[in-house]
Amino acid sequence: MARDCWSLNFGGHDRLQWFDPSGQFTGRTTGSAGSLPGQLNRPEGLAELKDGSILVADSNNHRIQIFSKQGEFLETHGQPGTGPGEFSYPFDVLVDRDGFIFVCEFGNSRIQILSPQWIPIAMLGSLGRQPGQFFNPWDIALDSGQNLYVADAMNHRIQKFLRNSHRTKFSDSQHMNQSSGRHPHE
């Protein structure tokens, strides 16, 4: 089934834009530059909840905002900080198949995992250069096995976290060399 898709725009425009299934811009946008609810300041990443709502990593406002599939502002989560449920420059957000929310924090050099009810339940990583540590992570993705990949920007690598039987626990990381894109043991 063909669906609409979205794009984020920042640099003075700071908005969420809608495209039809063929990739044509619909003319529909939401958000504007600013820090009030529904406004955006360098939106970086987006994800879709099961109900079609859209999560936006509102990086410079240190929060995740939720918009309806029609583009109406619904709610915001987070505030600046280093504690659970607080964010520092969230650059990406994703939702796993069980509804858990992953937030990639560029500023705190960590990945936060929140329940579908937005309760902080785990944090991965800390600032550093060792396996399992990050230096300004930029992007996150899940594979079909729900293993987590982290683009660890200033360490020039991608780290892979293997998901174990508990859906929010991950084993020690592996990292891939950026130049080859291959795991060092392959």
Shape by Cα distribution: globular
Reported CATH architecture of the domain at 78-177: Beta Barrel
| C-alpha end-to-end distance | 38 Å
- Proportion of residues in extended strands: over 45%
Strand order of the largest sheet: 4-5-6-7
Q: What's the number of extended β-strand segments?
A: 15
Structural class: mainly beta
Helix count, per DSSP?
Answer: 0
What string, H for helix and E for strand, traces the elements in order? EEEEEEEEEEEEEEE
State the CATH class of the domain at 78-177. Mainly Beta
- Report the C-alpha radius of gyration, rounded: 16 Å
Q: Kindly report the average pLDDT value.
A: 88
In the predicted model, the low-confidence regions spanning at least 5 consecutive residues are 175-186
Helix coverage percent: under 10%
CATH topology of the domain at 78-177: Thrombin, subunit H
Largest sheet: 4 strands, antiparallel
Strand and helix map with partners:
Layout: E1 5-9, E2 15-19, E3 25-30, E4 43-48, E5 54-58, E6 63-67, E7 73-77, E8 90-95, E9 101-105, E10 110-114, E11 120-124, E12 137-142, E13 148-152, E14 157-163, E15 170-177
Antiparallel strand pairs: 1-2, 2-3, 4-5, 5-6, 6-7, 8-9, 9-10, 10-11, 12-13, 13-14, 14-15
